[in-house]
Amino acid sequence: MAQWSTAVLRLIQKLNNFLRPGSSKLSCQPFLVDGVQVGYISPQISSYLSSYSDVFCMVKSNDGEIVQMTLNPKIKTFLERTEKVAEVMMELRQKDAFSTLRGWRDEMYPVMASFDSKPCFMVERSAACECNSLLGVLQYGVHVNGYFTDQSGKVFMWLARRSPSKQTWPSKLDQLVAGGIVCGEQIQEALIRECAEEASISEELAKTACPAGSVRCSNKD
Questions:
Q1: CB distance 142 to 181 below 8 Å
Q2: Quick one: how far is CA 33 from the chain centroid?
Q3: What does pTM read for this prediction?
C-alpha cells in the first residue's frame, strides 16, 4: 500500500474510532426517546444529567447499574422536549460543566434516529456536534469539494484553510465548503447557505454541485 494511502487509512480509523474494538462505546449508555435509540451518553456526562431527573431518566438493572438513559416520557411533544433539554444545557453552560458548551452558537440541530426519521427534538449545536457531543447523537452536514483542470489536463482539488480565529480546528486545512444541516433545512438549502457563508460562492454556481454519496463516521475525542 502506498505511503499516502496508509496515512489516509490511519486517519479514517482515527475518525471512526468509536466503532472500533476497545473504544469507549462499551462504557456508554444508550440514549432513548420514546423507546428509540438516538445516541450514546458517557458515564461522566450521565452523572451530570442524572441530577435533572425531570428531564433525563436513568434505567437501572437489578444490581443497580445504569444500563440506559431516556428522556422523561412525561415530556411528550417536540417543542416541550426542545425547551426542557435547552434549559438543562443552558444551566450546564452557565456552570461551565463542559468545555464544548463554550462554543454555544444559538444554532439548533435535530435529534433523530436516522436521516429520514422524524426529529424527536432540537438541541444547541455545541451540545450535539464535534467530537464531544454531550448526547452522542447523529448529526449531518454538507461537504463540498471543488476541482479544476489546467491547460495540460491535470486535475487539481481546491483546499481551504480555516481562519485562525475559528472556535474549532483553527488554521487547519479544510474542504472548499463544509457545514452542518440545521433543523428544518434541506440538503441543497444547507449547501447554498454554506457556499455563500464560507466561500462567497453564488447560489447559481452552488446549485451546479453534483451529489457524490455519503460518508458516516463515529468519533469520540
A1: yes
A2: 18
A3: 0.83
